[in-house]
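User: Assemble these into one structure.

Assistant: Restating your components, then the assembled model:
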Amino acid sequence: MAKKVINSVKLGAFIIGGMLFLVLLLYMIGKNSNLFGATYKLKARFENIQGLVTGNNVRFSGIEVGTVKRIKILDDTTIEITMIIEKKMLKILRKNAVVSIGSEGLVGNKVVNIVPARIPGPLAAEGDILNTRKTVSTEEMLETLSKSNNNIVEITAGLKTTVQRINNSNALWSLLNDESIPRDVRNSISNIRLATVKARNMADNLNAIVMDVRNGKGSVGTLLKDTSFAQNLNEAVLKIQAVGNEAQSLAVEIKQVVTGIQKDINTGKGTVNALLKDSLMTLTINTSLENIQKGTDGFNQIMEALKHNFLFRGYFKKLEKKKPK
Amino acid sequence: MSLATNLKIFFNEAGNLSRFTGRFFKQWFKPRYETAELGRQCFVIGYKSLPLIGLTAFILGLVLTIQLRPSLIDYGVESQLPAIVGIADVREIGPVITALIFAGKIGSSIGAELGSMNVTEQIDAMEVSGTNPFKYLVVTRVLAATFMLPVLVMMGIAISLYGSYLGVNIHGVTSFHLFWKQVFDSLSFTDVLPAFIKSYFFGFAVGMIGCYKGYNSSKGTEGVGRSANSAVVLSSVMIFVIDLLVVQVTDVLGLN
Amino acid sequence: MMAEKNQVQNIEKPLPGEQILIIRHLHKSFGNNHVLVDFNLELKKGESVVVLGKSGSGKSVLIKCIIGLMKPDQGSIEMFGKNIPDINEEELDKIRAKVGFLFQSNALYDSMTVRENIEFPLRRHWIRVSQAEVNKMVLESLEDVGLAHTIDMMPAELSGGMRKRIALARTLILRPEIILYDEPTTGLDLITGKEIIELMIEIQKKYKTSSLIISHDMNCVRMAGNRVAILTEGRCYALGTYEQLQLNTDPLVKQFFE
């Protein structure tokens, strides 16, 4: 008898095992098609559903939330689709969300996309009809694409002629090939360097004078009380300022020229390139530019100091008052 | 033998088999019910076939996956391997191969067992011992085969899909969970239910033909061998015929 | 339990000279092959009749008609007051419970042990007996045939003679009133055959059963039969004791005794 009991146990386990797999299989399929589990229905109306069929997936912002349950033709221009949506979406999906039909890949299954509107609205409830947006069908897309293609053709044709013109322009090429230009550039750069050194020296001297004045040293202090002298000094300062401004704008211009040349040269060819690509050269240019900047900076400081000096305060205030007018 | 004689033999056989089947249905519903023997037959026919069917199903799933892989790579749908194997396995290969193995094992064993019982007068002895041998031997075996084959088919499908999972992992990598999800996602009720229902018919055919051939075997040891052999051949052919009929029916019903 | 006891009492009820099996005008044919033509035979209580005939003379057909495995074309077989060809399955089963049948090929169920084989008729005839009672009866039957030690063996493990004895034990389990022997010594060597015949006689004495033996083995005919019926050309050609028939000069009878 014991033997028989074991047989029954084995037989039972065998049958239950087989049936369990069947039930699992059916349950998983049922789960995939939302047969079980809590769902609710939403509707949407389209003019063209582009081959959507029942059983297609419904996505909310790209997440699968349901399937298309039913497709019904209401009249010749309206098709109503009924979607079953997982109940968890009840608290998320709003009535003003927009429904559209898309596809998985270029030739894949159709899907219904629900995209939330970014403005607050009431939550969608069972049986609500959602707004729809007409989507671009593949044909329409291809039509637009063909127009864009035509445009691209025109643009490339234009580009082609431009390039051809550049190629045919002798002036541009001769300019780029002219060996005298880099030489001139180099000369002007060394001139600039000299100028900047001088400007710096001058600024230094000026600085020393001003320091003396500020400290009210000897005759200078007394001198400064003389208004005529002050008038002269005023003019001198203005001149110095103008020189400083000029130096600054010069420096800016040089910088622009240099960067322009550098750009040209980086893309261009010939001797210009070779010369200007010399790192030593660029280093010198850079230091000179720095010097100019330092000089002008120093000058600015001086000007600032002058502004605060009791002697010149009134003058500067006047200047400021004039400005708004 | 002339064609006419062959035809006559064929129709005679078909008629006898039909009458035998009719007798089965008549006896099935009449008491007394041989439940204990039915249980024993279920154990022998169902449970005892599991190792064989499990092994073949496992190899089948594995080989099918390995064989399909290069073609799918050619079409660039290698990632669909579990889905394709799943559909092929559930819809056709699982039920039919399991049924054929079942026919080979059970059809022949029923044919030989009943054949030898017939030859050694055991069937007569049962009748003399107050037992309706048709009920005791035929009804129980046919029912056991009918109800056990679907279970075996389901188990066979599960095992061969596991084999397929290992097959996928030979060249690629997929997680156990992802594999089954892909399989389940690709299936629908119309894949599973017709396959499951047709395996009942397969089981019935195997049991019925095995019993018919065994019960009506000619006397002598040669008859036993012949009945076992013809039981396997006929039931294998019947499996394909039923498969054809089922696919036609599901096609007409729009279940494909 | 009660039914069993009642049955045993019924069997032991002595009715001397009563005919418990009457076969009248039995006809059976397969197509144009007329196997039995107007066969008549009577079996009295406690008596042992041997039906002697050549192979293919219709002996097996006769015995299968008696037990209801075949339906005769014509004639009546009366057993326990019922005409076998006319009664329904239920009544037939009741009569079969009182009739033992020893098959030519033993017909032991290959898939069952010796114990299960012997239990089988007891369980199948709806005889409600406790398991202990069944075990006792099985053992008793096996002891009657002297093979108690084989109780848990499979038939395939046994020799031909042992299988015959087990088959006999199986027919004995229901304490039958009539035992039908279909060629009990066929396929056995002479000595084993003799042992079986002795066993048959012993059992007949012990349980006071009537026997109908079908055989072409002259040893069996001489030892086991109170009367001998010679079946030739489908009818009971001659009937008498072994000694009477031995003296018969009819060539059809004489051929068996040469």
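The radius of gyration of chain B is 21 Å.
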